[in-house]
Write a structure and sequence with these properties.
The chain is an all-alpha fold. The protein is built from 3 helices and no strands. The longest helix is centred in the first third of the chain and has 18 residues. The model has no long low-confidence stretch (mean pLDDT about 80).
């Protein structure tokens, strides 16, 4: 490994195999309710967060005690 070419370690097929095994294990081991809840919450990190109305009004109000 000393002074070797790092690109030799890059194996895309290996990632496909590991990802497929992880997804398959999740589908087989989890009840349908958990699978549905996971799929429902999966896109949540990509959505913008909604802030409470009180937080935004306090944040934008001119005050000297910030």
């Amino acid at each position: 490994m000393a002074h070797g070419n790092f690109s030799v370690l890059w194996q895309p097929a290996e990632f496909v195999i590991i990802l497929g095994a992880a997804i398959g294990t999740f589908l087989v081991a989890s009840p349908m309710k958990v699978i549905k809840l996971t799929m429902k919450g999966f896109p949540a990190p990509s959505r913008p967060r909604r802030q409470a109305r009180t937080n935004t009004s306090n944040c934008c109000a001119p005050s000297t005690t910030c």
